[in-house]
Amino acid sequence: MSWRAFFFYREGVLNANQLTAPASDEFDLVRGWQSLHDEHGVALHICVAAALRRGVTDEREAQQLALPGHNLQPGFTLSGLGALAEAALTCDRMVQF
Questions:
Q1: pTM across the whole model
Q2: Which residue among 30, 44, 47, 56 is the active-site one?
Q3: Quick check: is 96 in a domain?
């Protein structure tokens, strides 16, 4: 089985917040996702509406909304539901949790 894409929504968008700082004895989940993207080319889509509600944004959205900064971890992409629909149409299975 190979993973091609993940779509994060609701609280899951917090997996893309580069300002997290886990304790030294904890797994760094944000950087773990980034490593998965970097090493295997897995697309990491973040629901743009859920992300903005929770304070996660990229540089372009931050400028457009006149926000003081951005915090989207490299490797993640702000995406709409179209990205989820496309992934659903091209995959052989879908897992939701």
A1: 0.89
A2: 47
A3: no
Could you tell me which residues come within 8 angstroms of residue 83 by beta carbon, excluding any fewer than 6 positions away? 5, 7, 43, 45, 77
Gap between the Cα atoms of 35 and 54, Å rounded: 23
Q: Would residue 47 show up in a list of annotated catalytic residues for this protein?
A: yes
Supply the CATH number for residue 77's domain.
3.40.1260.10
Q: 20-62 pLDDT, tens per residue?
A: 999 999 999 999 999 999 999 999 999 999 999 999 999 999 9
Q: Report, in this order, helix, strand and coil percent for the chain, each rounded to 5.
A: 40, 15, 40
Q: Residue 95 falls within a domain, yes or no?
A: no
Q: Structural domain tally of the chain?
A: 1
